[in-house]
Structures are given as structure tokens and as C-alpha cells.
Amino acid sequence: MSSIVEVFTGINDLFNQEQQVTPLIKEINLKPYLQGDVNNLCGLYSAINSVRLVIYPSKIKPELLSRCIAVLSQKKKAGDFIGKGTYSSDIAYLLKELLVREYEIRFTKPFKKAVDLETYWSKLKRFLHQHSNRAVIMLYYTEQAGHWTVIREITDNELILFDSKRTKDLPKDICTTTELSHSKTRLLMPTMTFLIKSTRFGG
Q1: Is the pLDDT higher at 22 or at 52?
Q2: Among 17, 87, 101, 150, which residue's CB has the most CB atoms within a 10 Å radius?
Q3: pLDDT 10s digits, 163-178
Q4: What burial letters (b/e) apply to 133-167, b meaning 16+ CB within 10 Å?
Q5: Distance CA 99, CA 90 (A)
Q6: CA 83 vs CA 1, 14, 46, 77: distances in Å
């Protein structure tokens, strides 16, 4: 079994492989970093990928993943967020203690309690459509597990993702904010949602 150092060294190499980008978000060639074989780092990837979108066309620093791990390790043991994943409080801590300070971004966590899907969808749509340099970090659940992802665009019918597991979108008709069912297979978590915007590009 690879050591933690070897795993993170391999992952960190991905952050030096920037893709060519285009001026318009809707035609973007920028690709999200992937989790690789470490399945419980989607929270870290969502935070980093959201910053990549928000500061685009600028690039993140190659050492950002290592910095994120170091900062989060001040709050909890590395084995905890590697093995058990990241919580909403971990994402907030990472944004506040590192990403807001290193990059020209701001974040809010607008939902203090659960809301219905229409209210949630409408809020995200208004936020994302106000400016291109914006992103949403969101936690959702399936019957198997929870997953942190990044929403880069939203339509009336689907969420367009910038996701570390290559998931392209989430159709609205399979989403819910109440409980999972046979037809509603994605439980979106409003209280585990972060709105990220740029302070540099007028976002």
C-alpha cells in the first residue's frame, strides 16, 4: 500500500499539468483535477477546483494542494480527512484560513436550514448568472455515499459540474433536497453549500 507521502506526491503532480483555456466559460477547455485512487479527498478537490474556476483565466499555484493539506492538518489529523472525508466546517476553515488569503475570492454559506428544491435552484441560478467568475461548492448524497462537487453553471433543467470524478451534470429531475427515493437519486444539501466569487473580476 502506498504511503500517504507517495499518494500526495502523485496527486500533486496533477497540479502542474494546466490545460490550454479559452476566454468563455461555456466553451472552457479547462479540466477539473481528478481524485485518482484516493476516494475521500473530494472536499479538497472541490475547494481547489472552485478557486480555479473563479480566478480563471489566472492559474492556481502548483503547490496549492500541499498547502491545503498542511492547513487542514492544523485542524485535524491527516488520517481523519483522508479516511473519513471532509466536513462542511473543514471546507469553511480551508477557505477562510488559506484560499481567501491567497486568492482574490470571497465566499458565503447562505443556507442556514433546509429549503425546497425550487428555492435552492433559484438561489444558485441567480448567483451563478450574475458573473462568469463564480462557482458553487455543494455536498450531495446518493444511497452509497456523499460527494463534494463544484457547480460551474446552472440551467432550468440541470446543474453543470466541474467535478473531480468526471461527473458532467446533475439533471434536475433526479434531484431533491428532502429525501432519496427510487426516482430522486441525488440528495442536494443546501446547508452544505458554499457560494464562491471573485473580487478581482467584478464577481
Answers
A1: 52
A2: 150
A3: 998 899 999 999 999 9
A4: bbbbbbbbbeeeeebbbbbbbbeeebbbbbbbeee
A5: 12
A6: 14, 21, 17, 10
Q: With beta carbons less than 8 A apart as the criterion, state whether 122 and 40 touch.
A: no
Phi, then psi, of 35 in degrees rounded to 5: -75, -20
Mean pLDDT of the chain: 86
Residue type, 35: Q
How many other C-beta atoms are found inside a 10 Å radius of the C-beta of residue 123? 17
What is the model's pTM? 0.83
For the beta carbon of residue 127, count every other beta carbon within 10 angstroms.
Answer: 20
Distance CA 38, CA 124 (A): 29
One-letter identity of residue 74:
Q
Choose the weakest-confidence range: 29-43, 105-119, 172-186. Answer: 29-43
The C-alpha cell at 199 is 473580487
